[in-house]
Amino acid sequence: MKRFAILSAVMAVFMVSCGNPPVRYITENDKILEITFHRPTAQQTLWNRTRIIFINMPRKTSLNFEPEQGYKKEFFDTIRNPFNDVNDFLPVEARNAGVNYDNPRIINEYCALFLNRDGSYVLFNRLFDVLWEGKHQTAQQRFEIWSRALAAKTEYWRAHRRAAGVLYFCGLAYNRPNGPQNWTCDNWMDVPNLTFEPTFYKYVKPAFAPVGLMIDIWEKDYPAGAKINVPVFVVNDLEQPFNEDIQLSLWLDEQLVSTAIKKATAGPYKVITVDFEVAIPDQTGDYLMKAEYTLEGENVFCVRDIPVK
Questions:
Q1: With the CA atoms of 234, 239, 244 and 250 taken in that order, what torsion angle do they form, in degrees rounded to the nearest 10?
Q2: Confidence of residue 184 (pLDDT cuts 50, 70, 90)
Q3: I need a labelling partner for 290 at 20 to 30 A (CA). Which of 57, 96, 115, 261 fits?
Q4: Cα Rg for the chain, rounded, in angstroms?
Q5: For residue 108, how many other CB atoms are within 10 A of its CB?
Q6: Using an 8 Å Cβ cutoff, are 40 and 105 in contact?
Q7: Domain residue limits, the chain
Q8: Does the pTM exceed 0.90?
């Protein structure tokens, strides 16, 4: 645990670039009028803009909004370069002259979600309301949302290799739930004893494992009785080959529904995908999919929600 804490603190030193999908809010009289998601084109040089309009929707009412295809598919289904690259800020004259810097990009502060150590809001947390009705959640529910979103983004940026480094923000920050309000915070519960918030430790530690996993499915829901292909990325950041069994299982209310095991062989510093065919149950419900392996006593896993309708 202490090694992980030290690594997290070292990561905070590096603040080079961000990997957040930018989101812009327009509000008036305590109402959200418009949200704009910015997404890059295939050439990664311009931004496509998907505009989602909210008319006369008070923030205190239900704001569990998602794009039609679901926010996970909206955010994660496109492979893109991190924004805030140096080329994004070149003067027009330089761009027209063909100037381009191909420096390796190191991303940090890529989750854009923060909570105080007691689970209360920081200033920069409108997404909790927009996507998850955060003000109606308990502190523990918000920690679960935050940790799983951070883990998924970590898996995404590692798996697609569009950044030279994925560095988490941050090791140690301020915590002022009683004011003055802060924009960010860290993930500690007890700083003197180096105790992380438990859900952060549970989900984010395996996301940063030397050999990480990513279940690459992002649908909003799944039809009962369907068969789907599930690619599982295996990200080997070690200098030696990885050759282990990957287990993919489906759970409902902590009861095992189905499981399959496949061998994964990934060379040093390589990324591979292992494809599983999964039968979606006929029974509707909120399932959980889990990919995992255990090596030298350490369980590394990735989870996805599978709502079956």
A1: -30
A2: confident
A3: 115
A4: 20
A5: 23
A6: no
A7: 2-207, 211-308
A8: no
Tokens of 171: 């090791």
Which two tokens mark 230? 């599930």
Tell me the backbone φ, ψ of residue 6, rounded to 5 degrees: -65, -40
Residue with tokens 């697609």: 160
CA 308 – CA 295 distance, rounded (Å) = 32
pLDDT per residue as tens digits for the range 57-105: 333 333 445 577 887 888 888 898 887 778 878 888 988 999 988 888 8
**Which CATH number does 211-308 carry?**
2.60.40.10
> What residues are paired with 286 via a beta bridge?
307
Q: Which residues contact 120 (CB under 8 A, 6 or more apart)?
A: 139, 177
Rounded-to-integer distance, Cα 130 and Cα 125, Å:
9
CA distance 27 to 18: 25
The pair of three-digit structure tokens given for residue 286, joined into one six-digit string = 């909120």
